[in-house]
What does this fold into?
Amino acid sequence: FGIPSASFGTALVKEVAKLNSSPERKTLLLLFKNLIYFQISVGFIVFIILLLSKNIISTFLNISNSMIIVAFSVNIFSQFIFVVVNSYLQGMLKFIKFSFLTVIGGSFRLAIPAVIVLLGYRVAGVYAGLSLSIFVAFIIGFFFLGFSFEQLKNKEKINMREIYYSTIKTSILAFYMTIGMTFLNNADIVLV
It folds into this structure.
């Protein structure tokens, strides 16, 4: 799930930077709201698919504790949501806040799972801790963006078709680029 998510994030940075330079801030807010809903929907669908197939995955990977699969599913769900906040911080040129969020998020991803493992929750605790740390970083990132919940409740209709089309087109290009870079890196490692 990393390559499609990274490709989408790359395309989103481009679109947000373009919208941020325009005087129309309502489009930026509406795109954020719609993308959060979209990412929650996609993450939830992936979560449900993984949850429904947890017995198959557990049997195939020889995992006796199915809670590991459940915690992993929640972790995948949380990673889908975080892409939007990261891309918005980069696209809105809030690099200091983005850097701070990256450092804080990395620290949370280390500290929270470590504490949960020390409490005795093992591998499932690691995934639960990673999910919790991503949700905390998401909330911090949301406040770094400077949006208020009242602004996101705006019901105004704006035609977003062109923005979506441009984002999808750039995502596809970024997807192929990321696949190529990953293949090149892996081929280099195998050959050396």
